[in-house]
Every structure is written in C-alpha cells, then in structure tokens.
Amino acid sequence: MMNSSSKQNSKKENHRSDHRSDDRHGGNRRSGDRIRWGSLRFRLSLVFAILLMSVSAVYFYLMSTSSADYLAEMMQKRNIDLAASIAKELKIDSATNEIPGEELENLFHAAMIINPNIKLYMVGHDGEILTASANPGEIKMQEIDVDQIEAFIHQTDSMPIYGDDPRFPAEPRVFSATQLLSQDGSLHCYLYITLGSEHETDAASIRHSYILMVLGRALLVALVVTLIIGLLLVLWLTRDLKKVAEAVRQMEQGDYSVRVQASSSDELNDLAVAFNTMASEIQTAMNQLKQNDELRRELIANVSHDLRTPLASVEGYVETILLKKHLLSDAEQQGYLETILKNTRRLTRLVADLFALSKLEAQQTQPQPETFSLVELAHDILLQLTPKAQENKVTLKSDFAKDIPLAYADVSLIARVLQNLMENAIQYTPEQGKVTVIVDKPEGKEVKVCISDTGQGIAEEDLRHIFDRFYRSSNVRAKSQSGLGLGLAIAKKIVELHGSELQVESEVGKGTTFWFLLPVSEEVTVPKLV
Description:
Blueprint: H1 4-33, H2 40-78, H3 82-87, H4 101-114, E1 119-123, E2 129-132, H5 146-154, E3 162-163, E4 173-181, E5 187-194, H6 198-207, H7 210-237, H8 239-252, H9 267-323, H10 330-361, E6 370-372, H11 374-391, E7 395-400, E8 407-409, H12 411-427, E9 434-440, E10 446-453, H13 460-463, H14 474-478, H15 487-497, E11 503-507, E12 511-519
Parallel strand pairs: 7-9
Antiparallel strand pairs: 1-2, 1-5, 3-4, 4-5, 6-8, 9-10, 10-12, 11-12
Helix pairs in contact: 2-6, 2-7, 8-9, 9-10, 10-15, 11-12, 12-15
C-alpha cells in the first residue's frame, strides 16, 4: 500500500495531467475558432480568388489587345484600294515589259511626301522583292509571303490580314496590295504597300484612353464584388462542415452527446446524418461500457463478499481439525466436515452459476428441444426440493390442470429454470408460508407454468431490477442471504432462448408469482437464439 506522501505526489501529478489535458483541449478550441491557413475553407477561397483574378486578367488583356486589332482592321479597310489607285499611275513599257525606273522613283517620292509611314514594294511571282521605296539598308528580308497577298486581293480571309514587313521581319503589319498586269494580261508583279505604324500609336493611346480606364475600373469593381460574394458563398456552403468539425472536437473531449444540425440537403447533410448515427452508436457503446464496468465492479464486490465467507469457514474448520484432531471427538469432527462440505457445495454452486450465465450471455448455449411432460418435470423437482422446504418450514404444493399436453423445449434447461424459481421462492418465504407450482393450459397452443409464494413480496423499486445480474434487494442484503443474485438472470435468459418471456407479479406483504409460457409438442418449431 502507498503511504500518505506517495498518495499526495500521485494526486499532484494527476492534477498537473488534468491541467495539461485542459490546456491541450483549450488550444484545440482556440485553433478551431479562427480560420487556419491550411483549412478547406481557406483553400477553397484561395482557389476561387486565383481563378477569378486569372479570368479577369485574361479578359483585360484581350480587351487591350483587341483594340490594336480593331485599329489595324479599320486602317486596312480605309486603305483597301490604296495599292490599286497607285497602280493606275504605273504603266508597263510594252517594248521592255518593264516599268521605267524614273517613273517608279517619282511614284515612290510622291507617296513618301503624301504619307511617310507607308512603304512601297514591287514583288515578283515568287515573293522576291524587285524594288522598294525604302532604303536598301533598311530591308532585312528579300522575300514576302505571296499567300497573304493573294488572300488580301481575293478577300479569302477576314481583316485584318497581316503581312511581312521587310524592314521589321518580327513585326507583321497590315498592308494593301494589287496585281500589275502586262500588256498581254499576264501577271507582271505585285504592288505591296505596308501601311506603317500609326495604328500602333493609336492603339497605345487607346490603352490610356478614358474609355479603357472606365472599363478597367468597372472590371475591378466587378472583380471585388464577385470575390466578396464568392467568399460568402464558400462560407455558407462550408458552414455545415464546420459544424461537423466542431462536433468532432467536442467528441474528442469526451462529449458523446453532441449532434450536428445540418441546414442543407446536399452531401454535407449526408455527412452530418452519418456523424449523428456514429455518435449515437458511440454513445450507446460508451454507456454500455460504463454499465459493464459498474457490473464488473459489482461482480468483484459480490464475489469477494459471497466467496470470502465460505472460504474463511472452510479454512477455519480445516485448521481446527489439523491442530486439534486429537482433542476433538468423532461427533465434532463429523460436524466440522459436514460444515466444510456444505460450504464447498455452496462455492461450487456459485461458480457453476457464473459459468452458466456467461455461456448464456455469450450465446454459447443452444437449446435442444424435445417432447416431454412438463407436469412430470415439475413434480420431480418439487420432490427434490421438499426436504429443503421442510427445513425452512415452508409448505410445497402443486396445482396441475387436467389434460396438460406435452411441451416442446429443452428439458435440462427448463428444469434449471424451475429449480431456480422454486429455490428462490422457498428461500424468501417465511416460516409457515406456502409455495405453489401451477401448470395450466391457457388458450392457444402453449403451456403456462407459475411459481407462486406467500412471501414478503418485492418492492416496486426493486421489481424492475430483479432480473439484472448480481442484483439483490436491500431486504436480501440486510438479512445476509447467500447467493450472487444470478438465479433469476439465468432463468430469464433460458426462457428467452425458448422464444418466451419470464413475467413477474408481486405485492409487498402478500407474495410473488413468476410465470412463463412454453410451446406444446404440436408446434414442432426449433427455437432460435435471441
């Protein structure tokens, strides 16, 4: 056993452990109250915000770049006939089938004066640049894609149609083009005019224009409003999930009565219903464990109490015989041995009852029904218990109806029930009392068995517990009656194995009656385990 110092140290350590447990649970509660960075709600909000900002950025980029395409399309449409009008001023010499160089120089000079941003190119059949208004040092490519020129001339593509710019190969530009025909009507070359970069200046200016700024602000406001609404929707959609998480935390702290009230009808509601079902099962299991623990403690106490007395008696008488065997007479030794035998039989009965009840509760005992006479069985047990009744000065009587049909049940198990009920009635019936065994046949294909006594009766507060394991009323404990209170529990289990129920009626001061029903032999139905 621990001394007082060790007990105090143990209490202090338990106290510190309780504080640590409370701090840990409190920390969990505090962490659950705030939004954590790694929570599902935060991740959903972050993904929504990123997607919304990405879509807005793409939209703003497309809106900005589309202005340049719009200006390029407008410029190309305004100058769609520019090359054709200039080509009218060019005449191909019929003798040389060439355009005079002086005429080209004058044309290039006039075009540069009118619009210095355009450049003129004479392009051959295969796209080779024949001559150009630009300085030779500025030209960085010698061939132009003829397919784009043909697409422009025959309008096979939608505008804007971009073509090569010999001065800036990496920057396609809008253009105007036409065919120059020889005197015989064959293609002589193409007149290819790049329209310059003024539309780029216009595009740059429109990017900073008032309209684009208004559109940008409107987009920003829509982005903020949509983001706020989206975050609120995320909070609303995950509210039930937060309830489930909070309920799990409370259950972790030992509150098994917590339930989740879901406010939606989606998968989160299914999760809440499943959690509530699980919580109910866990609570039932925990209550059962507590009840089993209480029964275990009661069993230990009852077994310790009921086994200690006969064991102490056996030990005392054996020691007396061993130490004083030469001083004891034969009659005294015989009395001591009979007492020892009586106590060992009592111990054997207690152990047998415990073993029988454990097998019944574990459903390891299965009845083997057969046809037998219930009247004969009750009469045999009545004869066996007559000596005990006479010893207690209690009268045993039988009341068997006529023409009782044969019963169909397990003979040995029903005999155990009758014996337990009769012994219980004899034990708790006072002197000059009476115990009656009744076998009757009510309406239907069943036989009724009653064991009635004129004992002290059972109080109402004890009546609902008499079939509980190890239960004994306060009157029994006060009179120090022997037994673990297993007889009625065993009898109830056996009767239930036969598909029936052990009933009890009692009135304080007048007596108690136990009764149950058994099927007759015509109902050849094998009882199932319950």
